[in-house]
Amino acid sequence: MSTAFPKRRLTLTLLATALATCSFGLYSASAQAACSYPDAAQVFSPYKDSGWYQLAPDGGLAEGGNGWTLQGGAELVADPTARNHEGEQEETALRLSYGSSATSPPVCVDPTTPSFRFMMRNIGDGGGKIRVTVTYENTVKVTKAVNTDVHSDKNEWLPSPPVKLDTGDEPERAARITFSAKDQKSTYLVDDLYIDPFARH
Asked: What is the pTM of this model?
């Protein structure tokens, strides 16, 4: 009995398996490399944070708020007060009073981007807070917006605590981050939105 057919079938099976393995490897590599943050630096080291961060798209507002959505009276203002971190030092900041909000351009999020931080300055009521809302785009699984309240009692630029990002069960998402003044007497300046790509270094 000829064994040509079984050998050919075995060859085709092995070839198909190899192609599938290769495709999966390429997909995994592509997914892992989807969010590229090659210029991360330890910008918050003056605040005893040794993590690596990279500026989000126009996170320093140097491009005039390109891609940002400002509502309810949110505006870009000049504030030359030193930010006291090692990142870019731009004078432009977002000014947020009660009822206003500013939403960032889309930010790439994957399993290597667990959180973000930003600089804030309280120029209103000492007990006023900022509400930070993270929403996710291009996602199959609907994720409820995550709200986090942060505050600063001092009239100086300080970093926010790390705010968590979530990819759910997906390899990559686009997140938009919204800042709003939570309380009626709240007035804040916000600047320098940085993403933490911890797996890049």
From this structure: 0.78
CATH class of 37-200: mainly beta
Per-residue pLDDT in tens (0 to 9) along the chain, 201 residues? 444 434 444 443 434 434 333 332 332 333 334 688 898 999 999 999 999 999 999 999 999 999 999 999 999 999 999 898 988 778 999 999 999 999 999 999 888 888 999 999 999 888 888 999 998 886 665 555 667 888 777 888 999 999 988 876 777 888 999 999 888 888 999 999 999 986 444
Helix (H, G, I), strand (E, B) or coil at 163: strand
Domain boundaries, given as residue ranges, for the chain: 1-32, 37-200
Which amino acid is present at 92?
T
Count of C-beta atoms within a 10 Å radius of residue 43: 23
Amino acid 187 reads T
Q: Is 200 helix (H, G, I), strand (E, B) or coil?
A: helix
Distance, CA of 147 to CA of 155 (rounded, Å): 24
* CA distance linking residue 152 with residue 130, whole number of Å: 9
Q: Which residue has the tokens 């790390």?
A: 162
DSSP 3-state of 31: helix
- What are the structure tokens assigned to 35, written together? 């969010």
